[in-house]
Here is the input.
Amino acid sequence: MLTITKEEVEHIAKLARIRLSEDEKEKMTSELGAILAYVSKLNEIDTTGVEPTAQVTGLENVFRKDTPEGRIEADLIKGHLKVKAVFGE
Amino acid sequence: MMNVETLTIKKVQDLLKTKQALPEELTREYLKRAHELNPKLNAYLSIFDDAPGGLPCAIKDVIMVKNKKCTAGSKILENYVASYDATVVKKIKESGASIMGKANCDEFAMGTTGENSAFGPTLNPLDHTRVAGGSSSGSVAAVAGGMALFALGSETGGSARLPASWTGIVGLKPTYGRISRHGLLPMASSLDQVAPITKTVEDAAIVMNMIAGHDPYDSTSAFEPVPDYTKALTDNIKGLRVGVPKEFFTKDLDGRIADSVKKAISQLEKLGAIISEVSLPLTDYALATYYIIVPAEVSANLARLDGIRYGYSADGKNLLEVYEKSRSEGFGKEVQRRIMIGTYTLSAGYYDAYYKKAQQVRSLICRDFDRVFADHDVIVGPTAPCMAPKLGEFKDPLQFYLADVYTVQANLAGLCAISVPCGFGTIDGVKLPIGLQIIGNKFKEETILNAADTYERNH
Here is the structure.
């Protein structure tokens, strides 16, 4: 049965920008292992040549004009939105 | 003094029309009751004492109401205030609804019992030792407990039908694209829909009349014409072709639910429906498909919650630390698990094995439904494999997931489906409600509403 290692959990946590304590890493490793083992049963199904379905509406390329309508009010400071600094020193 | 417990939208509309009740009076009664019951049930995360006169309604806290907090049941959005009304909120306000407050839910709508809310679980109004069910936990408890006349919940894999069945009311999952998602916080965008939660099927039809239709702000909303859903309720199902999937009646189904649902199916037959057994062979695999696709979309959708753009922001020495601390402290365990699974299945080397595979199986599931709907009008079975569990009864993540076993297929295939009460089962001397699920093809809401309404009126 397919399983996931603690090292892989650490790597995934880094990619997902989630910080886990040592205890949480252990717990996550066993929980994700159980979930991945469960979903792996899809391998029993032959999907050769089956097109994947990403959405079910059948709608394609719905466009509208990209004109601002001022529907959403934001607290602007001198025309700018204030967020936390994102550039380090 | 009106008895709010037995009121429906239909009755209230009649009372208002004949001036036997005033909108302000209605709002006042429901607010009073909400304040009385909420400290115990925890259905509302916020109650609006300044609500205007109108049809009292609860809104799941993943749907935006302008200038009101929208927490998604999460610490990361604890103080987030919505800057606009969701399209559905705008529409129900225009239809005379008055928003009583924002309803509790599993964090970002991820859960089947309501216990994943960062603000505590919602109790079942029928048995306070049990959960109301999730993820639209507060919405169903508000309606079942008479703290709102109706509610707008949301559905990704059963989040309205499942808790509606556990609280003895009606939950409708509309066809994907039938209702605008603009202003609904996204969980899994290819599956999410806003879902009416009501006391009766007729009320669900009335709410559909308020909210269905295309919206230029949701490019996935459908252009299909919107009928008057209340006109579809003819109290006649003679000749209705009903398919009963044999895969819905296995040993995993509680015997009391099986009995109750089979009795309901016999009743449909007595009312003139033509019953036949059908097969949905991928039922067992649908849940696995769902729990690959949903976490993948979740991991992408929730990437925006980074401690910078909005919501909770932790202090950190550098940007990476701000991201990591904000997300670890802000998200609860189930959300973190799903982000982790999604990140894993979408990562290099695993995409084909998981996400693409799941999307291929999704195609096969759609084909199975096409095959059944070629000569059937509706598919009927149980809504849930068990009745409302006790608080803390479910332990490991997979146990929670399995409660969705009969509901996720309608979401994966984009179909419409409804849960309507069909009886009770007794556990420890307490009578707990059971739901009958009726699934229809895309844009066949009129068919399932009529089937459910006819059953509701004649059993």
